[in-house]
Specification:
- The structure is a single chain.
- This protein has 318 residues and is an alpha/beta fold.
- The protein has 3 domains: 3-84, Winged helix-like DNA-binding domain superfamily/Winged helix DNA-binding domain (Arc Repressor Mutant, subunit A), CATH 1.10.10; 97-164 and 284-311, Periplasmic binding protein-like II (D-Maltodextrin-Binding Protein, domain 2, 3-Layer(aba) Sandwich); 170-279, 3-Layer(aba) Sandwich (D-Maltodextrin-Binding Protein, domain 2), CATH 3.40.190.
- The chain has helices spanning 9-20, 23-30, 34-48, 64-84, 105-110, 112-122, 138-142, 186-191, 213-216, 218-225, 239-245, 257-260, 295-311; strands at 53-56, 59-62, 97-103, 126-131, 148-151, 161-168, 170-174, 193-197, 231-236, 251-256, 270-272, 281-287.
- It has a 5-stranded mixed β-sheet.
- Strand 1 (53-56) and strand 2 (59-62) form a beta hairpin.
- It is elongated.
């Protein structure tokens, strides 16, 4: 096949069709009419001598050949995009745009206030649309619909770019009237009632099972290694809610230290080190390979990374 006879626009169509897996949605993404998109799919089928997408009970499903083509086409388009990007650097002081960031409320309360303060000084025309983990799927990130995600992740698609922003230890938050303070030992900790709090990864959450140690996370994993188990009375995905519950005189909240320290001036709670060793957590930032070379995104990722490193008492990113 002579490459001079190939319309490179068809590769753009193929990339979007494989991401959306829906002709109508692909047409909307490319600002085309549905007949034009359908015609593009027909031409792709002729070009590759393959159906590309077939209709099944689950909707439009890529063929084996299409799945083989997907990473190749994406790499080609990424390289073309990199080649045609303007050489001029992003000018934050003049920019007017919205960045969409998925962040847990842990990251939103410990990191993003400082980020926002910096943005007001150096890029007053930029705005942040902060989304919750339940608002976003991995597919949204892969498609570049979200600029970046900041959270703790147990697993992440290998195609994503990522960086560790900081490590954090764990602390306990509880009422000064909680009787467990008279016996702040592992045995006392296990006899008390606890609030479980976490929102790792992305997507809509499901109900928790106290016996499912693998899904319970860092604290319960550390206890399980000791052959121990705590009494969880409340499950929540919101750190602010958990910190409010810590004011009750019969509950312990074990959470990342940076979040716990936000309540250090609250007389209704006290901070204590956990009576067991808990491995530190990693706060990560991840983004789509489609946005890797985007100047604006690169600038904001650097600002967020440098801010996190400064808060962590480390040198800014090189």
């Amino acid at each position: 096949m002579n490459i001079n006879r190939i319309d490179l626009n068809l590769l753009v169509y193929l990339d979007v069709l494989l991401r959306e897996r829906n002709v109508t949605q692909a047409a909307n993404q490319l600002n085309l009419s549905q007949p034009a998109m359908s015609n593009g799919l027909r031409r792709l089928r002729e070009l590759f001598d393959d159906p590309i997408l077939v209709r099944t009970s689950e909707g439009m499903t890529p063929t084996e050949r299409a799945l083989e083509l997907e990473p190749v086409v994406r790499e080609v388009l990424t390289n073309i995009d990199r080649a045609v990007q303007p050489k001029a650097e992003f000018q934050p002081e003049k920019a007017q745009r919205v960045f969409r960031i998925m962040a847990s409320d842990y990251a939103e309360s410990t990191l993003l206030p400082t980020v926002l303060s910096k943005l007001r000084n150096v890029a007053p025309g930029l705005a942040l649309d902060i989304m919750t983990p339940s608002d976003v799927s991995f597919l949204d990130v892969e498609r570049g619909k979200v600029d970046m995600v900041i959270n703790r992740f147990d697993a992440m698609p290998q195609s994503f770019h990522q960086i560790t922003l900081w490590h954090d230890t764990f602390s306990c938050l509880l009422s000064p009237e909680n009787p467990v303070l008279d016996n702040w030992t592992l045995d006392g900790y296990l006899e008390a009632s606890h609030v479980w709090v976490s929102k790792t990864g992305m997507g809509v959450g499901v109900g928790m099972d106290p016996s499912d140690v693998q899904r319970l996370g860092w604290v319960d994993g550390a206890l399980n290694k000791l052959g121990k188990k705590r009494q969880i009375r409340v499950f929540t995905r919101h750190y602010q809610a958990a910190m409010t519950l810590a004011e009750q005189n019969d509950l312990i909240v074990t959470l990342p230290t940076r979040a716990a320290q936000l309540k250090s001036n609250n007389p209704r709670v006290v901070l204590r080190e956990p009576p067991l060793e808990i491995p530190p957590l990693e706060l990560k930032m991840a983004w789509s390979p489609l946005l890797q070379q985007n100047p604006a995104n690169r600038w904001l990722r650097r600002l967020i990374t440098d801010t996190a490193r400064a808060l962590d008492g480390k040198e800014p990113a090189a």
